[in-house]
Design brief:
Elements: E1 3-8, E2 13-18, E3 21-24, H1 36-53, E4 61-68, H2 74-84, E5 92-97, E6 107-114
Parallel strand pairs: 4-5
Antiparallel strand pairs: 1-2, 2-3, 3-6, 4-6
Helix pairs in contact: 1-2
């Protein structure tokens, strides 16, 4: 079976597609905005764009992993998440506090999605 790598680099690919499933790399803010709500919106927009590139969308997300630098930001992140998730299509999800790779990052989200 073919493995398709989207924007492969020396460390990671932005997405990998195999056997009808898209595995997205963790998405983080690139704008420099410090507020978690804005970062979450930016990350979810990046996820939408990557899902579109591989031919699927957020209604087909199977699983999401949310990493927060500070669990005090959970409610703000979750408010943005609830506005984004397609009604009736909420994926399985875990949210944990984690030390992210760069101090300016407040949220990182990883998703796995089915292809049509």
């Amino acid at each position: 079976m073919t493995i398709q790598r989207i924007d492969p680099g020396p460390i990671l690919s932005e997405a990998v597609v195999h056997n009808g499933v898209a595995y997205l790399a963790g998405q983080v803010s690139s704008s420099g905005v410090r507020e978690v709500g804005s970062q979450t919106r930016e990350v979810l927009a990046a996820i939408d764009a990557l899902l579109a590139r591989v031919g699927t969308d957020k209604t087909r997300v199977l699983r999401a992993q949310v990493f927060l630098a500070d669990m005090a930001d959970y409610n703000i992140m979750n408010t943005v998440w609830e506005q984004w998730v397609a009604p009736g299509h909420a994926p399985a999800r875990a949210t944990v506090q984690a030390a992210l790779a760069k101090p300016q990052w407040k949220v990182e989200i990883v998703v796995t999605a089915a292809l049509p």
